[in-house]
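Lab notes, practical 5.
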Amino acid sequence: MVWALGLTVRNYRVRFLFMDSALLLIMIVGSCASILLNLAKGVQKMKVKVLGKGWAMFSPPYRRDFLIWLGSVAMAILAAALYSLALKMTDKSSMVSALGGIGLIGLVLFAWLVLKEHLGKRELLGVGLIIVGTSTLGYFNVPLTKGQAYNLFWLGAWLAGMALFLSLLCIYSILTRKLHGFAFGALAGNLIGIAMIFGDMALVKSGNSLLRQFQNVYVYLALLFSVSALATTQYAFWRSTALVVVPTINTFMILVPVLLDYLVFGTALQAPQYAGVAVIVGGVLILTTSREELLLEKKA
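Output from the prediction step:
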């Protein structure tokens, strides 16, 4: 018994030290996509008010802010392309979505190195949790032994249920002028998560071909949901603080593909991987609710 346990532990150590190069590449591409997307969201939050200037935003002195905002949109589009590439290389869209926390680490390092903002113990704890959660996802990943297939019934049920719930939540938010950040952040996060699922379905239907996927409707649904998420994010930033919007978006964009992976594709993560997802969400919430971030939001 002791010998068998020792052999199991040694096997896991070998697998961790010599992580499959394909899995490592997936995590690198997905992390780059996440970093780009989170940096884009940061810039969009800083410059979104320029859209309220109307035609004047195309002329000085607002043109520079508009071009910076437009550059952040280009970053988001590039992030979407990288997410699509990462989805092509894996059999679990939830693996890619869970890397969303890595982008916040890039945002924290950018704030520390470029903006010279304070990096305290709370921020380091959040970064550490995200690294541990992401490492857990990769360490316990087991490739599927059979091809993917999707169930349209459960996808339709999720879309109908979320459409009803989020519509009521957003209407309540508009009428009462409360919960704008959470309501529209949740909507944006759901749209991004569903776009990932549609992107995965497009690849499955096309036989995992990046080019042939444009011959089926799912890739265009993914694009539609992505563009809708971009527009919703701008509205959320306009009416609320990044302190509320960013963690809400990131939490839903991580959790929605995890749930839909199981409902639509019948794909389940390993038990430790679900724990890793929970740790990542915890790190996201810690990073985006720190006292320093709260003070910065109040000053803005």
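Observations recorded by the TA: The chain has one domain: 2-299. The chain is about 75% helix and 0% strand.
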